[in-house]
Structures are given as C-alpha cells and as structure tokens.
Amino acid sequence: MKIGIRAHDIETNNLEKLVNDIVDKGLTSVQLALNKSLPTLYSGIGNLTPGIARHIGSAFSDNGLQIAVLGCYFNLIHPDQIERRKGMDRFKEHLRFAKDFGCSIVGTETGNVNAEIVYTEENFKEKPFMEVVASVSELVKEAEKLGVIVGVEAGVNHPIYSVQTMKRLLDMIDSHNLQVIFDPVNLLTIDNYINQEEIFEEAFKILGDRIVIFHAKDFIIEGNSLKQVPVGQGLLNYDKLFGLIKHTKPYLNILIEGSKEPFIDESIVYLRRKYEKK
Fold it and tell me: Considering 20, 68, 127, 211, which has the largest number of Cβ atoms within 10 A of its Cβ?
C-alpha cells in the first residue's frame, strides 16, 4: 500500500522540515502545490527552472519520497480571460519542468463559471463543459509534446462533476496523456451519498483504466450538506473503495487530503487497517 499526503496539509513552508515531517510519518509520496507549500522557492509563473525543480525533487527523492502529483489547480474556464490565460500558462510551466521534479503528473480540477469555486448548476450546462474541453485539450497537447500527464479531478462544484462527465471529457479528447485523479468525496452530494457504493463501482468500471491517483478524504452530514472531516471520522465506505483498488490498482498512490494535525497519524493508521482488512 502506497500512502502519501497533500503536502500543504503539513503546516510548514520549509522544504527540509516538510520532507522530514512526511518521512517521519512513514509516508511514501506527496501531492505538491508549490505556491502553497514552498512559496519562498516558487513565487509564481516565470520562477521555475530545471535547477529549482531538481533541488526540490531531490530533497524528496533522496529521502525515499515520490512527488506523485504537482498540484497546479486553477479555474480552467475563469470568466476573466486574462486570469484564465495566466492559469493556463502556469500549468504549462509545471508541465515543462515536471520531469525535473521526478514527477509525471500535473493536476487540476476544472473550474467554475464564476471567479470563485462555488456550487452552481450553471456549471452543468453545455457551454461550460465545452470550454473545459477547449482548455484541457490545449494542456494535453502540451503534455503530449513533453511526455507527461494532465491529471483531471472531478467535483460537484465544477463542470466535470460526475463519472459520466469525466468519461465524456476523456472520450472527446482521446489522449493517454489525460488521466484521472479520483476523489470519491468530490462526487457525493446530500442527494446521492447514500448510493456511494454504486457510484464508486461505476467509476472503477468506466474510468478505472485511467485512474492514476486516489484522494483519501472523509465526510459527515451537517445540516443539509456534506462536511469534510479527517479520514476515518466520517461516512465514506473505505471497505468498498479499497476492495475496488486492491482488485484493479494495487499500487495506486493514495494521497491523504484535508487531514491536518493532530489527526494525520490516526488517519494513516485507519487507512492501513482498512486496506489490510480487504
């Protein structure tokens, strides 16, 4: 079992301390968002070079850690075209230097019709979907040139919000340089969470060959909505998920997301116990 963590859930901006803290927890990989975890080393677009990428990458690899994903999340369909282009250019920069980090995947969600990422059914219309197709196509063409991967994550606050919309995106772009970051909680709402097992089965049946990363989160119901909680403290059916993973993707990178101190260690113990049980 390969367990890692979203690096900015470790509260430090120091590269050496970040690496040591992750190693001390017995983890093997990270999702690294440079602007969130290492703002003193990465100030924004134009800042990356092979040198800084190798410096950061070596700090992880020399300690047995894989940078499984470079997180470069942005609004692919930002209503301000200037802001959208800034995001596209920053993502392409991450693609260019991904291999220098020792990483092959740069990841993002798909944005929002609004400047802020909020739930709106306007995201579910055809126009936002086709704008996502255009943006992702442009990024995938760049990834194909460089031999790296665009990882796309679905979520209910985005135009790619379901198993079906993700499958449609994959079919329309039709490139193996486009792969799936699977976050099961992101697919759940107050209306469908009781059917989570069926949703997960469908996801692995339809998207399974393209899933390259798994995000480990958890949720409870609070009021009339889902609230994220540390892994192991909620309602997510990990027995079902780990059964699917062990059957089809036994070496899938499982990255803990949203579990912060003092809950990280118990989240790791919970995941290992659940995985070994299956």
Answer: 68
